[in-house]
Amino acid sequence: MAQIRVGKPDVAPDTPSHTKGVRMGNERHARFPRGHHKDGTADARRSTGVRPKKENPILSVMPNLPPG
Amino acid sequence: MAIEEQEGVEEAARLVEMSWDPITRIIGNLGIYTKIDFANRRVVECHSTSSLFRGYSVFMRGKDPRDAGFITSRICGICGDNHTTCSVYAQNMAYGIKSPKLADWIINLGEAAEYMFDHTLFQDNLVFVDFCEAMVRDTNPGLLKRARNTEAPNAAIHGKRTIADIMEAFNPFEGDIYKEALKVSRTTREMFCLMEGRHVHPSTIYPGGVGTMPGPTVFTDYLSRLLGIVDFFKKAVALNDDVFDFFYEALPGYEEVGRRRVLLGCWGAFQDPEVVDYRYETMNEWGKAMYVTPGVVVDGKLITTNLVDINLGIRILLGSSYYDDWVKEEPFVTHDPLGNPIDIRHPWNQTTLPAPQRRDFNGNYSWVMSPRWLDQRTGEHLALDTGGGPFARLYTTALAGVVDTPYVKATGSAVRISLPKGESLPETTLEWRIPQWSNAIERNRARVYFTAYAAAMAVYFIEQALARVRGGDTKVFQDFDVPDEAIGCGFHEAVRGVLSHHLVIRDGKIANYHPYPPTPWNASPRDEFGTPGPYEDAVQDMPIFEENGPDDFKGVDIMRAVRSFDPCLPCGVHMYLGKGRTLKKLHSPMFGAGAGNV
After folding, report:
1. Is this complex scored with an ipTM above 0.90?
2. Residues 6 or more apart from B597 whose CB is under 8 A from it?
3. Structural domains in chain B, sorted by start
């Protein structure tokens, strides 16, 4: 063994690969993603969770095109 | 590619057996075996064979249906995205979902870039090797002499004074058109990647939509690239017209090369997002709304444009293929969602039972089956071909006369294509008219017109997609659940012709999956009724115009006939004389006829 200082292991080897209650991507009936609207439009919440309203367009006639 | 020659097999008839095996890399090794009557300069008999079994329909069973698009993409290394798209169409039908409109425009844009990419690469870098100065000098020196003294009618557009100048520009690695085409292929690939993420196995196309981020820049990046290459397509059409018209004029009777009865199939491309809902029940309506109209053409007449009729008529026949019959197996689908009965020989019911055996030209000789289309009017099983793809697409679209956009308009006998102003050439309108024959030259000519068609349609798709984005629509994906039991079918056009995917889901898994790409249609062997496949039919009884005799025969006319169907990428040919004696003459058209003598 090399002389490398390592941290104290804090994950038990028998930790399950999935924690009950956490949603799996492969599940049926996925949640509706945040920032997406039913009519196909989106707002800045799609791109960021940090003060998203500040990132929305300043005029209502402008399309809301969050970057990704 | 290999030219094999076995002499003295039928001395009495003075026939020489000549074969090219492999002729291409697509779906296993395609080989063309011919008997040539050199005295009368005619091909007497032709067999088309494939010596490799792929087995996608066998190992797709039991897999998660959502993986189908990613797996079937690997069928082909050049038009894999056509398979992904077709699989997505089939899955949408099976899952009962519809991609959002913007997603359909994005798929259309990706597929348009693919057509531009693949046709340019194949036409300018592979087909033209058969028409380049180095090849013509070796095979028809008399023709080249005449080309040097023939003015090119469209010189004002493309800048080449004589036909021989054009042929020189086609020379591999040296000619300027060859080199420019490579650059254009790069640009079109970039355009493709903007829309579908990766070429040629897309990473952002899924059932239910796309993963492409529909920002305005993705469309403007595409458009700026398109406008940079649009002049290339205008020049390419002019160059092709000049060279192909010269062949007709200088070699009377050349229209017989690769000629066969007009039996064409096109399964349609470019969905109209405003109409398509991917339901089987409404398939006829949204099929007709496609921006390339699907259809079957028999002897120059459009028989149908209904996708349901096209679907019901497909039959997979055996007769000369290395498979056991599946007639006694249990059918998967007895009736379609409209209640029409489905034949056991339909892809939905096919069970692939491979039976490897020795090649025997009087019995079984190919791994390719014989897809046919049953003409309900006559009961005939028609060996449809795809005309290399563009020929059938333009033919059905022109005859149907449905497509009507600001840039492409079908008139009933022609297709009018308007390309916008480019860097050096003004706005140009091109017209592809239905030709008299279905032959090698017209298949090749249609290919270059279709690059212009795809470019013009792409401009329209960009306008439509950008209008949605400017309106704030950014929805490109919709969620879905995989049903336990479902069926689906997808119809699309791979670059080189018809493409269908038939899917049966049971217990949430794939129970049966049959992709039918264009080459099984084109390269099919004789079926149980003895009807030869399109390659065989086109080459059989074809005249030979090559000036070389049997000793240094290159078979360029036969190659032109087979390659006009776009059998994917041609690779090297080697040639040997029978009885084990290897002829020390090798040539590889990839390196030019002159440079290839080893």
Report:
1. no
2. B585, B586, B587
3. 3-591 (1.10.645.10)
